[in-house]
Specification:
Elements (H helix, E strand, L loop, with lengths): L2 H9 L8 H16 L11 E6 L5 H6 L2 E6 L1 H4 L13 E4 L2 E2 L2 E5 L2 H4 L4 H15 L1 E8 L4 E8 L2 E8 L4 E3 L31 H8 L12 E2 L2 E5 L14
Antiparallel strand pairs: 1-5, 1-6, 2-11, 3-5, 3-11, 4-10, 6-7, 7-8, 8-9
């Protein structure tokens, strides 16, 4: 089944009318395709989460996702461009990539736009999955955020929009500002926990850098597309109403 064919099944609502046997065949088809899939570079468009690959089941409860169905990495990678309708927006959970699964697509509508909503989501994900990370980049606005949470609590966070801020104890891989060879304590100022800036660098040290996904990336299993509201289904997702 081609990607366009799968999209047609989704947009017409045929996925919603499949019985248990057909849904099992759909998942088998995704597993078979994924087993020979060459990793393509996903495009989270500046905002994504990462959770341990084996613990991804917790994502659905943490973000309130419903009506999931199996897809390959290629089929879900352009989730932001998929058909949708108000109240039913798709989110993509990738296959396992080097031991991690990325979560992205329509997160503004799924999670919200407020700081407390962002932090609440990563904390919930870490509570359900044991660990979770959040990455956000908006070069136009000068915003840059990376967060590491575990068992429902934020352990480490870097956030910058105007003045950069570090929260929590530095992680072992971070380069501390006070340890920089150019740092002079007599003339320079730095917070004791001032460490690594930029989500674009931190993601590669913490889990997976989406821009580096390629032939060398270990891919395992298939991904999932899921909707952010229950009981709506997929029929008419190509109608912008």
């Amino acid at each position: 089944m081609t990607k366009d064919r799968l999209r047609e099944l989704l947009a017409t609502g045929l996925i919603d009318r499949l019985d248990a046997r057909d849904k099992a065949l759909l998942e088998r088809r995704a597993r078979i395709k994924a087993s020979g899939e060459k990793p393509v570079r996903p495009d989270p468009r500046g905002w994504w989460y990462a959770v341990p690959g084996a613990a991804y089941e917790g994502v659905f409860a943490a973000l309130g996702l419903h009506d999931r169905f199996p897809v390959t990495l290629e089929e879900g990678a352009d989730v932001e461009d998929m058909p949708w309708r108000r109240g039913a927006l798709p989110v993509f959970i990738t296959p396992e990539l080097d031991g991690w699964r990325l979560v992205f697509g329509n997160l503004v509508d799924v999670v919200g736009q407020d700081w407390d909503e962002w932090m609440g989501a990563v904390e919930r994900l870490s509570e359900h999955c044991g660990e979770a990370q959040m990455f956000f980049e908006d070069q136009a606005a000068g915003a840059d955020v990376w967060v590491v949470a575990g068992k429902g609590r934020i352990r480490r966070r870097y956030a910058a929009e105007s003045d950069p801020e570090w929260v929590g104890e530095p992680l072992p891989w971070e380069d501390l500002r006070v340890d920089d060879e150019d740092f002079d304590p007599e003339y320079d100022e730095a917070e004791p926990n001032e460490g690594t800036a930029r989500a674009a660098y931190a993601c590669g040290r913490l889990s997976v850098d989406p821009t580096e996904v390629g032939p060398a990336t270990r891919i395992r299993g298939h991904g999932w597309l899921a909707l952010n509201a229950p009981g709506i289904g997929h029929e008419g997702l190509d109608l912008l109403v």
